[in-house]
Fold this sequence. Notes:
Elements: H1 7-14, E1 20-21, H2 24-33, E2 37-42, H3 54-65, E3 69-74, H4 96-113, E4 124-127, H5 129-132, H6 137-143, H7 150-154, H8 157-164, H9 171-174, H10 176-191, E5 195-199, H11 203-217, E6 222-226, E7 239-240, E8 243-244, H12 254-262, H13 269-276, H14 281-288, H15 295-311, H16 313-329, E9 338-341, E10 345-346, H17 347-353, H18 360-368, E11 372-374, E12 377-378, E13 385-386, E14 393-397, E15 401-407
Parallel strand pairs: 2-3, 2-5, 3-4, 5-6, 9-15
Antiparallel strand pairs: 1-6, 7-8, 10-13, 11-12, 11-14, 14-15
Amino acid sequence: xxxxxxxxxxxxxxxxxxxxxxxxxxxxxxxxxxxxxxxxxxxxxxxxxxxxxxxxxxxxxxxxxxxxxxxxxxxxxxxxxxxxxxxxxxxxxxxxxxxxxxxxxxxxxxxxxxxxxxxxxxxxxxxxxxxxxxxxxxxxxxxxxxxxxxxxxxxxxxxxxxxxxxxxxxxxxxxxxxxxxxxxxxxxxxxxxxxxxxxxxxxxxxxxxxxxxxxxxxxxxxxxxxxxxxxxxxxxxxxxxxxxxxxxxxxxxxxxxxxxxxxxxxxxxxxxxxxxxxxxxxxxxxxxxxxxxxxxxxxxxxxxxxxxxxxxxxxxxxxxxxxxxxxxxxxxxxxxxxxxxxxxxxxxxxxxxxxxxxxxxxxxxxxxxxxxxxxxxxxxxxxxxxxxxxxxxxxxxxxxxxxxxxxx
Length: 408
């Protein structure tokens, strides 16, 4: 492991956040002598971000923990276009009111992970609509467009993916990478920003911004990308049978969020503790060394720490107690996901309603494989009707997903 002089690069390296860095030595020297403002962009395409964005949120948290200044850039301008990076098709365009609603909602998430304020290392949130909405087309083409090579842009993996599959890439989306580079230039001018961070799929966009800042202003700025976070079985981080793992409780109950972390693969426990919690590294080393059934204790520590950070301590305590009662005592804990019904319901619809299956076909396969239970009884008939009275009915899918059917 490379020896770093700055707390920033040492912290990021020790916890496994660094995939690529532009001029690491110069960035290390800068971070060792002064506060470095750094940013990550987030497009407000929904009222909540999901776990797939969490490594970037934690990266901003680490930046602040190392004494530097996080800049959360909301893509109120670029969100009207949509990032084409490694997407199969164009993203749905949002109107002004929809974007404003999502930005306000997402800010609540960041306030749990970062300290906002007016201090030197306090986080700030900016919206690129502030400058992108005011751009004049001809001056922008003349002043900024001249610094971009179409030949080079066509060579980016994110663009080639769409072209190789003969999928449409609109001129609107093609402009996205120019606008993102311009964001870096504007942030360096407005907020003294010296660092852009992002996932490995953003490397080309980050390099564009670095080169644009150098050519137009002669400013030295830097970039860091994180590795693609996948699970030990090769799956995409944050994707489950029931869909995205949302950070907002409005989109996902506390218990489901806690349970997502509790269900972590044994092989991922140490890595996820380093990335997604503030536990000391020596404690993490102790926990990831546990074997057999003892590794479950480490998973509970991970679930409690990750849930406390995102949802609050009360949510973590309540979820852990619900899990204990459910799995150890067979009781119906109060934080289990619920599905309210007005009458008796088929088991297939119940599984879908609780989020344990995404379709009727998936629910039927779950039943056929012996993975569905009503109370303590295994379901063998996909046409089974579940009678719901005054008391909730407990439904299980596999060993780890439990929920309640509640009569309206």
